[in-house]
Amino acid sequence: MNTSRKRKRIFRPSYYSSQSSTYLFSVRSFVLSFSFFIFLYLISYTIPFSSLAFRPVLVISSLASSSSNIAKRIQEFDGFITFPWKIENRVLFPDHVLLLVSSLKKDGLIKKSAKELECVYYGKTVLEGNSNGSSGERDPSILVKQNVLSVDEYDECRSIVRCPLPSMNYSSVVNLGRRGKSGVLEEDTGSLMNIQTVHSWENVVYAASLDGNTAVVFVKGLNLRSDRESNPRKFSCHFGLGNRKIDGRFMLRTKALTAAQEVVRCSLPRSVQANPDKAGGIRVTVGIITYGRSRIQEHVLVPSVAKISSFKSEEKKKSEGKYVLCACTMVWNQASALREWIMYHAWLGVERWFIYDNNGDDGIEEVIQELDLEGYNVTRHVWPWIKMQEAGFSHCVLRAKDECNWVSFMDVDEFFYFPYSKPRHKRFRKFGYAGQNSLRTLVANISSSSRSIAEIRTSCHSFGPSGLNSPPSQGVTGGYTCRLQSPERHKSIIRPDALDNTLLNVVHHFHLRKGFKYLNLHQSTAVINHYKYQVWEVFRAKFYRRVATYVADWQQNQNEGSRDRVPGLGTEAIEPPDWPIKFCEFGTTD
Ligand SMILES: *[C@@H]1O[C@H](CO)[C@@H](O)[C@H](O)[C@H]1NC(C)=O
Ligand SMILES: *[C@@H]1O[C@H](CO)[C@@H](O)[C@H](O)[C@H]1NC(C)=O
Ligand SMILES: *[C@@H]1O[C@H](CO)[C@@H](O)[C@H](O)[C@H]1NC(C)=O
Ligand SMILES: *[C@@H]1O[C@H](CO)[C@@H](O)[C@H](O)[C@H]1NC(C)=O
């Protein structure tokens, strides 16, 4: 153990509590005078340094790769006391580099500083010569800066910063700097070998959540079969309790209990089980078990950026009892659709929304804040993982579990509809529910009539552009009036406590535990109006990005002719001449 580690531990409490300001002051003056001493030492090397007002981790270029211990220790020391963030991990996506940055303060400062931040790239040395971006020598004399793409809150302890991909001769080990300053925030590896890495999005453990006595771990790159349970004995789980990554990165090993698609459920190490409240923040990864030459088990660990998060519902909510009906959805740039969707379903009785934001940049945050201020219980959750809708839904189940008895999984272009809700339809009504809170009452009633029903399936009618050329000003539910005759697919409202342990789901359908069953709602009771084929300017977005894992993007020449694709559309976003009148078989002017 090196000394800087101990020192951090001593200083941490004062940093967090911040009320012991006199203590902090003395620490600070100590640091300042110490820094000044080091400054004198360093200035003889004519090294770039930054003003004390900013105080970033000093990147001492010409010393960075040498092993001048004293300089290194001061870097860390100074960095910890004065710099409010550290880069924990980087993930290389096809179109950006994602940085996970932990805040050493509680108030999510980094978002406020977004405008000041910039991404810093180093030239790759000839030595490194690989483009897969992993650690390597870099040439600190070649350095470029670019604006960050976006900054966002991620989880309890981390923010994300997105940086543009580095250009050809630059390393994807991106760091952060502040505009107009020479200091650079680097990954705090806490080790003397300052190895910096970037993980490939193709193979990485990216999230983990606490669920009772287990941790549910989300893994990209296992390539397990869709809609099937896989053999958990092929995997192991590995936990890293320490704060640092150096020795014994993942010391504790446990069994994988289930594995399916991208989700592995792990037992917790015994020491953590005894105290699950303390599980938050523990690093976790999954091992793939292989057998060596002499049948010796080997665990090939998947690189990980995941820390266990635990969703503690507010005490207030616990005492009030759970919501009857909540909704989870995943969106990508659908901010404009959100208000109508939420207000409509609030009227039908949905009480709580979880919006998983999959890399949108259309200001959905403001829409959600407004709705929240108006009394809708809606929260946004950043889900930066591309094409991971199914995993995101499993994640949302865990989040909703403590708060909700039932959760509806649907898209923001889908609206529950009670066809016989007009007074003149009274005689058709099976259940006496129309009007306000219809959906909640229906769900509550089904719930109380049978404890074994854990999924309510509702058929979806697909609406066409209904002759329109621009988005209807009265909203989608009023504007689109013509649909296909027969329903396509159905969507589910589920009981989170009755799902199979795998949390397996495909196309919004979850596998239920043994002993639970689903109920098909009769179409005369309720249907979902799915505004699937809207006016072209809305529809064409589907060409650029699909959020589901097992759905090919439409620009790829895969799955052509599958049910997921639209009949008559190829791989290009070109409006068919008859688009406005397509998909119109049945008018609904009711
Ligand atoms: C980069 O990729 C090549 C093969 O594509 C591999 O052999 C090499 O080990 C990788 N380098 C690093 C540092 O991961
Ligand atoms: C990258 O570096 C090589 C060798 O140093 C050089 O020949 C090439 O022009 C550089 N490419 C770019 C895009 O800067
Ligand atoms: C939000 O939640 C509270 C209880 O926590 C509930 O009383 C209220 O009706 C909910 N708001 C909406 C619009 O459903
Ligand atoms: C639920 O619906 C049934 C009709 O299917 C009705 O008899 C019953 O009273 C309803 N229960 C509640 C609690 O509303």
Automatic annotation (TrEMBL):
<keyword id="KW-0328">Glycosyltransferase</keyword>
<keyword id="KW-0808">Transferase</keyword>
<feature type="transmembrane region" description="Helical">
    <location>
        <begin position="21"/>
        <end position="43"/>
    </location>
</feature>
<dbReference type="InterPro" id="IPR008166">
    <property type="entry name" value="Glyco_transf_92"/>
</dbReference>
<dbReference type="GO" id="GO:0005737">
    <property type="term" value="C:cytoplasm"/>
</dbReference>
<protein>
    <recommendedName>
        <fullName>Glycosyltransferase family 92 protein</fullName>
        <ecNumber>2.4.1.-</ecNumber>
    </recommendedName>
</protein>
<keyword id="KW-1133">Transmembrane helix</keyword>
<keyword id="KW-0812">Transmembrane</keyword>
<dbReference type="GO" id="GO:0016020">
    <property type="term" value="C:membrane"/>
</dbReference>
<dbReference type="Pfam" id="PF01697">
    <property type="entry name" value="Glyco_transf_92"/>
</dbReference>
<comment type="similarity">
    <text>Belongs to the glycosyltransferase 92 family.</text>
</comment>
<dbReference type="GO" id="GO:0016757">
    <property type="term" value="F:glycosyltransferase activity"/>
</dbReference>
<keyword id="KW-0472">Membrane</keyword>
